[in-house]
Structures are given as C-alpha cells and as structure tokens.
Amino acid sequence: GSSGNTTRSDAEALANALSKFKFVTSLILWYNILFEINFTSKQLQEKNLNIHSAIQRLQQTKNILEEFRSDEGFERTLVDFLELAEEIEFLTKFEPEPVCIWQKKQQFSYEGRDTPIQNPKQRFKVNFYFTVLDTAIHLVDERVQQMQQLESVFGFLYDIHSLQKKTAKQIREFCIKLESALTHGNSK
Questions:
Q1: Helix or strand or coil: residue 184?
Q2: In which domain of life is the source organism classified (predicted)?
Q3: What 8-state DSSP symbol labels residue 187?
Q4: pLDDT bracket for residue 119 (50, 70, 90)
Q5: Which domain holds residue 20?
Q6: What is the mean pLDDT of residues 39-60?
Q7: How high is the mean pLDDT of the chain?
Q8: Which helix (H) or strand (E) holds 16?
Q9: H/E/C letters for each residue in 111-148?
Q10: What are 69's strand-pairing partners?
C-alpha cells in the first residue's frame, strides 16, 4: 500500500543522506575526537593518577586535537574517508550546495564584503570541521585550566616527599593557600 511506498521512499532518502560525503566525513571526525576523549577519560579514572599526570594527559589530548585541526589533519581525515568509501562504495566528492549571498549594509568604508566560500570542500572544512574541533579544543583547555587551579592549591599534597626539600616558608605558603581555599566566609 501507500505506507509501504512511503516507508521505502523514507528509507531511500535516509540511505542517500547517510552515504553523503559530508555525513560520513563528519562521522570520522567525531570518531577521532571521541576516541581521544574516551582514552583520556579512562586514564583520568585510574586510582593512582595524580593531579600532575592528569594535567599532562589533558594537555596531550589538547595537542592531538590541535593536530587534527590543521590542513594536514583534515587531509588525513579525508584519506580515512576514501579508504572507507572504497570498502562500502560511497560517493567520494563533496556535493555543491546552494550558497545564499547575503547583502550586508556596510557601515564604514573600510569594511570588506563577505564573500561566501564557493569550494564545497573548503566550506565544509571551515564551517564544520574546524568549528567542531575548535569547540572540542576549547572544552579540553577549560579542563586543563581547572586542573591547574586545583594543582596550585592541592598539588603539594600529592608529592609529600618533595616537601623535605622545601623551606619552612614555602611550606607555610602552601598551607596558607590551602587554608584560604578551604575557608568559607568567617568559618574555618
């Protein structure tokens, strides 16, 4: 009946959308990002991990994501896609999309005109690939900064043996910083 035709049409439309170059390339990008995040997450959950090692691992993850966010990283993602496309016979080209050209009123004479990116591959790289990686890098960087703040307060507790090499004044400064972090208002 008509519901069978509708279902078939919906299935064909879905299969067509899933086999598009941009969709599969975005899946490869997400896989690479989530693989790194998952690997880091598992390491951060280890019982014996200290705060300094956690910061190093987060920084390594950020560096790996920054490597992905280069022209070379984009090309490596495309190579991964082409290998996958060969196996499952996908389209291997970016399809052009209609580009709307918005006319923005120029307020000042020195403003340049916004020209949309015409090349579909370049548009995908700038508007999706780099944007997703920028967000991931920013979020990992926030975690690094949070961990560095924690380390500045609690870090000396993770390496008690190094306290023997510190002066009494340095140890007192560590303790004052810790007391300040653990104090709320007038209560101690």
A1: strand
A2: Eukaryota
A3: B
A4: confident
A5: 2-95+111-157
A6: 94
A7: 83
A8: helix 2-18
A9: CCCCCCCCCHHHHHHHHHHHHHHHHHHHHHHHHHHHHH
A10: none
d(CA 162, CA 174) in angstroms, rounded, equals 13
Rounded to 5 degrees, what angle do the CA atoms 111, 113, 116 make? Answer: 145
* 76 within a domain of the structure (yes/no): yes
Assess if residue 165 is contained within a domain.
no
Gap between the Cα atoms of 64 and 60, Å rounded:
6
Distance (Å, whole) CA 127 – CA 147? 31
Q: Are the beta carbons of 31 and 124 closer than 8 angstroms?
A: no
In a domain, 86, yes or no: yes
Closest-CA residue to 147 (of 66, 79, 77, 57)? 57
For the segment 83-89, the average pLDDT, to the nearest whole number, is 75
- Note whether residue 170 is domain-resident: no
**Nearest C-alpha neighbor of 39 from the set 66, 59, 55, 61:** 61
Total domain count, the chain: 1
